[in-house]
Each structure stands twice: as structure tokens, then as C-alpha cells.
């Protein structure tokens, strides 16, 4: 069965430090991988996606993610965290013709001033 | 371009009451989705639609019904609300392809007493 896992419920990082939010996947076929962010009391917003091609994907708000096929990972990264990056981050996947996204449980990112 | 909108934003129901949540999108998207979000459980798909006049069950369809009479609207109904349906409900839409981004509404916070 297709799935994604976000192994950390919460990540804490100091402002200005690099941040990483982890995601691993298990899919058959070529994975389509997504990152979304949810700010408090808001809907989810698309950050970036990997479909094919370059393993390093750049997205909104300075975020990027690296697709690693051998480690079946798609970690979200940012070189320098901002307090305003504090939010809930979701990894998701689908594969093939499946129109439904499979979601991780989310990782709460707290950036401390 | 309003994107995805949801009505209402908040609602409190008594057990056994019924209500309908409305989702509207102005992006001419084919696919629409209803999710619920509960603490520690991530996003769970309730129902989805791949086009006007068609609907399908997601992971947690029991206790909910949906209709897609117009392409731009996707309605979620609760015929007899239960406390277990207390949740935040999100609507999303996407274009036809499985690799397409889903766009989310701002959510409806429903409390069933």
C-alpha cells in the first residue's frame, strides 16, 4: 500500500538556522510527492512538488526539497528559518492514475526567535 | 479569482441535526475533495468527485453524503450529526491530472454537541 511517513511530530529550530522536515514514502511506480504548509486556523497551501527530473525541487517562501530514490525520502529544507515559518507541514504522495493524495500526519515546526 | 471558498466558517450543531457544507471553486477544476482534519490523524478523505454529476467514497465516508450538481460546487451533507463528526472540514480542488496540485479552502470548524 502507498504511504508516507513523517517521523517527527515536532521540530524546533532557532531563527536563522537551517531547517529540515523529514518525509519518507512507500509507493509502487513513480511517486509524485508534495509538500503543503498549514498556518494556524488556515487551509493548506501548496509549497512544492516532485514529479520527475531534477532531484532538488525549489518551492515557495524559500523552501526546497530533495528527492532521494535510494532512501525513499523527500525531506523539506530551508537554509535559514524565519519565525514566520512556524506552521504545520504535510508531506503527501500519489502515484500513477490515482487521483487521491496519501497524506502524512504532519510535522509541527516551531522557529524560536 | 477567489480560489476555493467554503461556507460556513464555523457551525455548532446538536446531535441529530443536519447540515450542508458548501464548497465552491472558480478555477474550472475537474476534481473536488472533502477532507476532515483531526488532531493526530492528519487529513482523511471523506468523499471526492472526478467531475460534474459523479462522486466517490474516500477513507471515511460513513455519516456523510455529497453532491456535485455543478462543476464549481461540491456539497457535503451530514444527515444526522454525531459528536464524532466534530472536526475541521476542508474542501480542495485540482485539475484532471494526478500530478496536479490540490488547492484548499479555508476550512469549516464544526462542533457537534
**Structural class assignment of chain B:** mainly beta
**Global Rg of chain B:** 13 Å
Helix-strand pattern of chain A:
EEEEEEEEEEEE
Helical/strand content category of chain A: mainly beta
Number of helices of chain A: 0
Q: What does the main sheet of chain A amount to?
A: 6 strands, mixed
User: What percent strand of chain B?
Assistant: over 45%
Extended strand count of chain B: 11
Give the low-confidence spans of chain B: none
User: Level of helix content of chain A?
Assistant: under 10%
| Overall form of chain A | globular
Number of strands of chain A: 12
> Which overall shape of chain B is indicated by the principal axes computed on the Cα atoms?
globular
Strand percentage of chain A: over 45%
Pair of chains with the largest interface and how many residues each contributes = A-B, 24 and 23 residues
Overall mean confidence score, pLDDT of chain B: 94
Q: Largest sheet of chain B, described in full?
A: 7 strands, mixed
Distance between the termini of chain A: 41 Å
Characterization of this structure:
The complex is a heterodimer of chains A (113) and B (113). Chain A contains no helices and 12 strands. Chain A is mainly beta. The model of chain A has no long low-confidence stretch (mean pLDDT 92). Chain B has strands spanning 4-7, 10-13, 19-25, 31-38, 42-51, 54-57, 65-67, 73-78, 87-94, 103-104, 108-112. By secondary structure, chain B is mainly β. In chain B, strand 5 (42-51) and strand 6 form a beta hairpin. The mean pLDDT of chain B is 94. At the A-B interface, strand 5, strand 6 and strand 10 of A face strand 5, strand 9 and strand 10 of B.
